[in-house]
Amino acid sequence: MSKSKALLVSLIVAVALVASASFAMAKPIKIKFSHVVAENTPKGQMANKFKQLIDERLDGKVIVQVFPNSQLFGDNKVLEAMLLGDVHLAAPSLSKFKKYTKSLQIYDLPFLFTDMNAVERFQKGPEGQKLLTSIKSKGLIGLGYLHNGLKQLSASSPLRVPADAKNKKFRIMSSDVLAAQFEAVGAMPLKKPFSEVFTLLQTKAIDGQENTWSNIFSKKFFEVQPFITETNHGVLDYLVITSTEFWTGLPDDLRPRIKKALDEAIAFGNKVAAQKAIDDRQKIIDSRRTKVLELTAAERQLWVNAMKPVWKQFEDQIGKNYIDAAIKSN
Ligand code: SIN
Q: For 2, phi and psi rounded to 5 degrees?
């Protein structure tokens, strides 16, 4: 080969290399993270922390886009969208997986966990870890649990004893256990998306709802609900999920780094959750827009007695082994 021909060949090779390198750089992996809550919530802050860690550590090879407030998908659609590849990360409430597994319904059993430490112990144990992968056969992988906190009951009239809830309409997440829980006190449960709750309360289409202090505060439910009863009757926790197809399709060198950032973001979100359960409760009390009712031990016991039969009702669907392990975690 003549000298000038060799020069031309190496020039072409160099140009091709530069072009393919810039093509690779121009095509970062996009992770769309969709959720339904406000940014100033445990989940909102966890998602933003994940984005921040990826931005800092992965040199633009991965771009995270966070869509809060049901901007991209509501919880009713997000799992289907994930299986279609339209969204890659989400953290729906554990109450929203009924279509995919019955075992996760355990988290909806009323008065099962005494506090969030018990939830944490259960999740770290073998049964909790097994539940993380309980939707694998449906093409979804649980990457971790994220906390929000214990739920309270808000209503248009004071709720002190179960009879106060009789014939009242309560919005619930799409869970049959939650429906049974309200039916157990003679109330009427309505499955509605989170994005509709404020308007339903404001227009008095429903009488009440159940949620955590941070959701009641960030979505301003306390401004349209004159009473909140501090029941701590159930847990609102999340499963951080992705699709098997997306997760296994990630480059092997990036997947562990993405997982590490996610684990750190979840740990951060859990700290935010613990703090918000205290701070947002106080902000709601200080607002004087609503009255927070504390139950006596005897009043609370009436709610426990009325709702606890739901455990037996769902024992076969959930699995007794899971329920026993949850009780032990207390
Ligand atoms: C959420 O915290 O993600 C929403 C909970 C709800 O639907 O009530």
A: -65, 160
Whether the model pTM is above 0.70: yes
Query: Which one-letter amino acid corresponds to residue 151?
Result: K
In the reported structure, the alpha carbon of residue 216 is separated from the centroid of ligand 1 by a whole-number distance in angstroms of 10
Alpha helices per DSSP H over the chain: 3-26, 42-57, 75-83, 116-124, 126-132, 176-183, 197-202, 213-218, 244-249, 255-287, 297-307, 309-318, 320-329
Residue 308 alpha carbon to ligand 1 centre in Å: 23
| CB of residue 211 inside a 6 A radius of ligand 1 | yes
Q: Is 290 in the pocket of ligand 1 (CB under 6 A)?
A: no
The per-residue pLDDT for 23 is: 47
Do the Cβ atoms of 318 and 105 come closer than 8 Å? yes
pLDDT tens across 18-39, in order? 455 554 555 899 999 999 999 9
Please tell me the residue having the least CA distance from ligand 1 atom 4: 194
Q: Which atom of ligand 1 is nearest to the CA of 211?
A: 8
pLDDT digits (tens, 9 = 90+) for 113-164: 999 999 999 999 999 999 999 999 999 999 999 999 999 999 999 999 999 9
Q: State whether the beta carbon of 154 lies less than 6 angstroms from ligand 1.
A: no
Domains of the chain with bracketed CATH: 28-329 (3.40.190.170)
